Recover the amino acids of this structure.
């Protein structure tokens, strides 16, 4: 690409992380990269995560819409305003200390902070309560355990999608709004990505699966989804 500012080029050249580098090199060659490219050409089944890797390196990306190979509208990414380069992030995120991970795991009794499912520690990952893209590392110093949650991969993907479509993530960048959100404070929250929503993840495991099958059967008999059936029970 021609016409890139010296500051943006310097920031780009500093990135070495593989997934972020893949996205950057494709944009340099083609001008942008689509979610379809990320899935079909590079095998990234969660394209927003790959774009997020670039943003976490301090490189601004814009999201826009293009037409995919099947005619449907899909997302694409290109370099954004070079004045928005985040120098405090260049070189990538901090590596979390094993001590922090062990402490959080014990604090959460080995459960995902979002869905509450118990996992071995290797299946949980440290996540900033306030998204990195909103406040950077400054929002959650390594010494502040309260600024992090251990969550499972499934919940991490759900959070990423929800946050990336939130106006606060895209424009406002207000940590206070994040703190009041379900994804940052599932223990007590006022909204979900600025929507008037309450949610609860329910997981049945082991012997509990028997009661799950009973509830599902009763829901099907009433032509309801399990969620609808549980809501009806709660309303009574």
């Amino acid at each position: 690409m021609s016409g890139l500012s010296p500051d943006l080029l310097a920031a780009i050249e500093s990135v070495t992380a593989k997934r972020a580098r893949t996205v950057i090199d494709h944009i340099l060659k083609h001008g942008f990269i689509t979610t379809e490219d990320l899935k079909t050409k590079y095998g990234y089944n969660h394209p927003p995560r790959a774009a997020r890797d670039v943003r976490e390196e301090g490189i601004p990306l814009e999201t826009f819409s293009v037409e995919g190979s099947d005619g449907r509208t899909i997302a694409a990414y290109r370099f954004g305003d070079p004045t928005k380069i985040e120098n405090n992030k260049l070189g990538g995120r901090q590596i979390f200390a094993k001590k922090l991970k062990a402490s959080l795991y014990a604090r959460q009794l080995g459960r995902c902070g979002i869905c509450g499912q118990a996992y071995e520690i290797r299946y949980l990952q440290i996540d900033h309560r306030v998204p990195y893209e909103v406040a950077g590392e400054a929002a959650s110093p390594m010494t502040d355990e309260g600024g992090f949650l251990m969550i499972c991969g499934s919940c991490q993907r759900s959070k990423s999608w929800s946050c990336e479509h939130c106006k606060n993530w895209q424009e406002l960048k207000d940590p206070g709004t994040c703190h009041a959100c379900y994804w940052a404070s599932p223990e007590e929250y006022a909204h979900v990505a600025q929507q008037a929503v309450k949610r609860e993840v329910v997981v049945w495991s082991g012997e509990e699966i028997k009661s799950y099958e009973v509830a599902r059967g009763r829901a099907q008999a009433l032509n309801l989804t399990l969620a609808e059936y549980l809501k009806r029970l709660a309303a009574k």
Remarks:
- The chain has three domains: 6-89, 98-179, 206-235.
